[in-house]
Amino acid sequence: EIEPCGCRTNPTGGMIRKERLLESLLEGRTRDQLLQLDSGDLFFSSQEIPETLRGQTEIQALALARSLRITGLRAFVPGEKDFALGTAFFERLRTESGAKALAANLEKKTKSGWKRWLDADHTFTLHSTGGQVHRVAVIGLIGAKIRLPKGLRATSPVPMLRQWISQNRKKADWLVALTHQGFDEDLQLARNIPGMDFIIGAHSQSYLQEPRVVESGGRRTSIHQCSF
Fold first, then answer.
1. Does an H or E element contain 75, and which?
2. What angle do CA 198, 199, 205 make, to 5 degrees?
3. CA of 162: how far to CAs of 67, 101, 153, in Å?
4. Which of 15, 44, 51, 83 has the least C-beta neighbours within 10 A?
5. What is the rounded distance in angstroms from the CA atom of residue 77 to the CA atom of residue 142?
């Protein structure tokens, strides 16, 4: 939020608090040592925006997008709320944020049929304090049951995830599935499809004090949930 967050102490805006956290994580480090990701429902608090609030909602969303560029967001998977003002405005927000929008199983209806709209994945390069280079492969996935606006649909994430893991397991140091589908679906995904190192998810507002670790197929997948 760009307004006071309602915290009992030091109720500054949420983005200011986030920037302070990032500064503390980056102390003595450079930006290429931090990979900041988001699991969606990033720009709006609801999926339906009344026409009377459209103008101020656009201003707020653009302010948030520009602040995300300043704080260094690298990639996100869109949630259903991110399309509250349409796909064209979403494209504007994506450009303003400077972040990659990833969604391997999101399709948009065109005159020639349904086609994938956004990039499926991206591999980021990080540097450790010791100078080592690490490759982090990230895929975006949206739950097939998520209610999306007309003209968009999410297919099953399972076949794409299986193929992506087989293609990237030996190429990357870590595989990250950035999901917007909810904790129960993330848990099922980790149990049924081994090979991921991390699932960073959202949608069900399942706040985890500690990540849930799932062991399957001889590998451990750590599930993290954003409380949105």
1. strand 75-76
2. 140
3. 35, 20, 20
4. 51
5. 7
The torsion angles phi and psi of 163, rounded to 5 degrees, stand at: -65, -40
* Under 8 Å between Cβ of 144 and 105: yes
- CA gap 69, 17 in Å, rounded: 15
Q: Is 4 helix (H, G, I), strand (E, B) or coil?
A: strand
Q: How distant, in Å, are the alpha carbons of 11, 53, 156, 164 from that of 38?
A: 23, 25, 21, 20
Return the ∠ at Cα 45 (arms to 39 and 47), rounded to 5°.
90
Tokens (6 digits) for 163: 């193929």
Give 162's Cβ-side CA count (13 Å radius): 6
Encode pLDDT of 80-138 as tens digits.
Answer: 999 999 999 999 999 999 999 999 999 999 999 999 999 999 999 998 878 889 999 99
Residue 108 CA from chain centroid, whole number = 19
As to burial, measured by CB atoms within 10 angstroms (0-12 exposed, 13-18 middle, 19+ buried), residue 222 is middle
Q: Produce one character per residue of 183-210: b if its CB has 16 or more CB atoms within 10 Å, e if not.
A: bebbbebbeebebbbbbbbbbbebeeee
What digits encode the pLDDT tens for the residues 178-207?
Answer: 999 999 999 999 999 999 999 999 999 888
Q: Which residues contact 148 (CB under 8 A, 6 or more apart)?
A: 80, 83, 106, 142, 154
